[in-house]
Amino acid sequence: MVSIDSLMARYNLLLQTYLPIPIQFKAPASTQAIARAERMLGIRFQPDMLTMIKTVNGYDLTTDALPRVHDIPALLPVESMPIVRDDFREILEDLGTADVWDDLYIPFAKYPGINKYLFLDYRNGTENIPVVVVDDDTGIPEPFADSYNDAVDILLKRITDTKNPGSVHREGPMEIEPEPTVIRKVNPAMEARRDKGPKEKSIRGVFDYHMNNLVINTRLIKRLLKFVSAYETRSEEHIAFLGGNLLGINKINYFGEDEQTWRDEILNIPNCEALEDDFHNLPDVNPDFFVTGSLLNMTHVYLAHRIMISGLSDREKELGLTAVFKMLHYKFVASLLYRNFKHRTQEAVALALYESLSRKNLLKKYHSFGAMLEARSKDVFSKKSIHYNTLMKMA
User: Fold this and answer.
1) What are the pLDDT digits (tens) for 187-236?
2) Can you tell me the distance from the alpha carbon of 143 to that of 132, in angstroms, rounded to the nearest whole number?
3) Tally of CA atoms within 13 A in the half-sphere of 109 that contains its CB
């Protein structure tokens, strides 16, 4: 088996070799990102894989400067692994081949331009974990390498072969001695070439830059609808509030874990801290304003914008947009209830308040908080809405 030290020595050498080519190397994965991915995947990463992702959290070889060679997959960042696994499962369900699937197949690399991935096979435990390759044509796992180390060795060999077309391509792992190269956490030449941030100093420009990996497709809409449904039915308290019309009797809550799920599983933001810094540094944004200066609030607006300009069907757009703005309304309402109703209201008082409302009141019109908030959510992106053009242009 090839040692991880040997692989990392070669990897550092490849960094220097490829400096003239703008390959996008991702920053090392944080401890929090690794722990979150392990929790969502239900596994613990191998020590050798941890060594790699703590050095570089994935890389992208699909730039225009390098040919899109289909036998050179890109290593996935840990944040993408749970999403890719769940998306792949849905693809196989659509193909009717989900019976061959197991959630203990953990994706770590994707071939450019096609739905073909490398997976770690955790089905037999954490010892001697083999690597399989799976594409969405068949959904059948095929052997690729005996271990993560061997798989990375094959990928590095293929990168070298692409750089040197005259070299002989080998399918199997190659035993080599570690290069006497000092591994640096940050390569100065690469750091000098690093993109200095979004060129367009606008809200849309900042979000486009930091969320350029966000893909708007049917699977995203399904994840979004599942997230909203889980929130609405989280507890008897949530169900009672959304189905009721008496203020102060029941409540909904919006927790930090809801924000984390939104950020990591729905939007898959690679670096939330960098996005928030650039967002708050915009001249039109005041970070002291709790509503307009909130990054979380603006992510809902940006996702709505991306859905509106996407190629999804009108029905999918409506479902997705309604879900986005329902969650934003739920967040606002949960905050209002928390601040203003520390204690449960007497039911007779709440009933008297409801009866006193006029027929023009939206709660009286829709009969429940859930129906009212859904109607208000649809009003936000209606073509008759004052917000429609702003959402379309995000400008």
Assistant:
1) 343 333 334 566 668 899 999 988 888 889 988 999 899 899 989 998 99
2) 4
3) 24
3-class DSSP state of 144: strand
Cα-based angle 212, 214, 217 (whole degrees, multiple of 5): 140
Neighbours of 285 (CB within 10 A): 18
Q: Supply the Cα-derived Rg of the chain in whole angstroms.
A: 25
Structure tokens at 383: 């073509």
pLDDT in tens, 266-298: 998 888 888 999 999 999 888 888 788 899 999
The residue length of the chain stands at: 395
Contact of 147 with 130, CB cutoff 8 Å: yes
Determine whether 315 is exposed, middle or buried from the number of CB atoms within 10 Å of its CB (0-12, 13-18, 19+).
Answer: exposed
Q: Six-digit token pair at 202?
A: 């606008």
pLDDT of residue 196: 55
Q: Which amino acid is at 80?
A: S
| CB-side neighbour CA atoms (13 Å) of 23 | 23
Read off the pTM: 0.57
CA angle 355, 359, 365 (to 5 degrees): 95
Of all residues in the chain, the percent with pLDDT exceeding 70 is 75
Rounded to 10 degrees, what is the CA torsion of 306, 307, 312, 316?
Answer: 170
Task: Give residues with Cβ within 8 angstroms of 346, minimum separation 6.
Answer: none
265 secondary structure, DSSP code: I
One-letter amino acid at 29 equals A
Q: What's the CA gap between 321 and 303, in Å, rounded?
A: 8
Sheet arrangement for strand 116-121 = 74-75, 105-110, 116-121, 131-135, 142-145
Phi, psi torsion values for 49, nearest 5 degrees = -70, -40
Bridge partners, 106 (sequence order): 120
